[in-house]
Each structure stands twice: as C-alpha cells, then as structure tokens.
Amino acid sequence: MLICGNRFYNCILSLSDFMEYNLQELTEILKKNKLRVTQSRLAVSAILLKAKGTPLTPEEIFKRIKKSKSLKSDQVSVYRALGCFEELKLVTKSTFYGEASRYSLCEPAKSDKHEHYFKCDVCNLIEPFSGCLVGKKEKELQNKGYKNLRHHLEINGTCPTCAQS
Questions:
Q1: Helix (H, G, I), strand (E, B), or coil: what is residue 103?
Q2: Neighbours of 24 (CB within 10 A)
Q3: Three-state DSSP class for residue 95
Q4: What does pTM read for this prediction?
C-alpha cells in the first residue's frame, strides 16, 4: 500500500524535528533506491525517529506502532522494513548479549559509525556513550592489513536510578 497523503506526513514530521533525518528525507532515500514508500516503512521510520537514537528491538517497534493511533504495520512488515533499512545503511543493527538485535537510525554522514552502550542489568536501560575505547587498536589492526573491521562495545552494570533503589 502506497502512502502519498500529506495528512500522514504532518502527523509524523512533528516527531522528527530533533533528528538529522526527517521522514521526508527517508522517503526520498527509498524513492531514489526504487523502493516503494509503504505504510509499514513509514511507521517504522517514525518510531525510529521518535526513539532519538535509542536502539529498539523489532518487537518494541511493533508494540509502539500498535499503540499509535496513526501508524499501521504488521509484525512481519516491521522485520522487512528493518532489513531494507539495514541494506540502505539507514539503521545500525546492535546485538546485545542474551537478547534480540536492536536497531537505531544512523547519522546520515556516518552510516558506518559504531556506537558504545551501557546496559543496566536491572531495568534493561540502554544508553549510548561517546568516545571510542577500541579505535586505537582497530587502527593498529588496519595498519597490519586487517580489513572490514567493526566492533560493538557493551558495558553492563546498574544505572544510577536502579542503584538508588
């Protein structure tokens, strides 16, 4: 199903004022790649935009779509949309120990960017943190001829909120 109406855009664009991408830019990327702009792809985009970079599982995305009054998608289409976005390097797929993969929108200029996360063992809060602790070692390996290097850093513990309880 193709969504062309401005009513849908108006509803969603207000969510994305804070992001590097907005829904219209994501729609243009799909069109440039000769992909249909479906209701499901728009719904997944809207949820990821609203998440402000917080990595979400496909199930969490689907639950947020179901709670919404204006967004529509079935669960299979959420997975398909995420796969499509991953191929286009629009999302970063992060795998945390012992749980499903999570997805977050990439910054447009840094689609190969990696992130580092803190994950609370009590409430499952996941927060990105800045600064690359592994970058120096990665550069050493590249100088030795290693290719296609990537990493994912996850630090686990108890967040300040849970530590106070």
A1: strand
A2: 12
A3: strand
A4: 0.67
Listed in sequence order, the residues at least 6 apart from 161 whose beta carbon sits closer than 8 Å to its beta carbon are 123, 125
* Surface-to-core class of residue 114, CB atoms within 10 Å of its CB (0-12 exposed, 13-18 middle, 19+ buried): middle
Give yes or no for a contact between 36 and 70, defined as CB atoms under 8 angstroms apart.
no
Distance CA 85, CA 11 (A): 22
Would you say 126 and 52 are in contact if contact means Cβ atoms under 8 Å apart?
no
Residue pLDDT, tens place only, 104-114: 887 654 444 56
Provide the residue ranges of all domains of the chain, joining segments of one domain with +.
Answer: 1-107, 114-165
Measured distance CA(120)–CA(129) in Å, rounded:
13
Please give the CATH topology (third level) of the domain spanning 114-165. Dna Ligase; domain 1 (3.30.1490)
Residues 62-111: pLDDT tens digits?
999 999 999 999 999 999 999 999 998 888 888 887 788 999 887 654 44
- For the chain, percent helix, then strand, then coil, each to nearest 5? 45, 15, 40
The class that CATH gives domain 1-107 is: mainly alpha
Tokens 């590097």 found at: 20
